[in-house]
Description:
It is a single chain. By secondary structure, this protein is mainly α. The protein has one domain (2-141). It is 70% helix and 0% strand. It is built from seven helices and no strands. α2 (27-47) runs antiparallel to α3 (51-63), α2 runs parallel beside α4 and α3 (51-63) packs across α5 (94-114). The protein is globular, with a radius of gyration of 16 Å. It starts with a helix and ends with a helix.
Amino acid sequence: RELDAQRVSFLSAAGSGWDDGDVKSGGARHRLLVRVLAYLGNDCAKKGDGTALITAWKKVKESGALPRDGVLSTFLYALTSNGEGYGEREEDRGERSAAADDAAQEIATFHDILFRPTEKTVSLRVKALVAKGDAKGAEDLL
């Protein structure tokens, strides 16, 4: 319900041509937006750099988009692979790392609400709760 409301709000703000009279699915342009974000996720995963996905995740939330299970998994992979194997220096990670961790935790929760939880999504959520000092919440997830 909240996703539908967010989608309607986005489509209203985006102006004509975005909803094609089909608010439920968002219309052709909205579906294209979801596909473009999926392609971006694939590209980021291939390059081992999830930086662009921090902003992409904000756009998913802003638009009320409902990405498929595989798209969310790809976002998580790209955000949590930390650029390993691509020569990223530790000092380059700083703030971007914290933002990527926050986005990954949100995506994992979003994934688990919409789809069947996976070992990776539950693990990310448990680590986030432990980092916040919520051992009971982490235990409840397991």
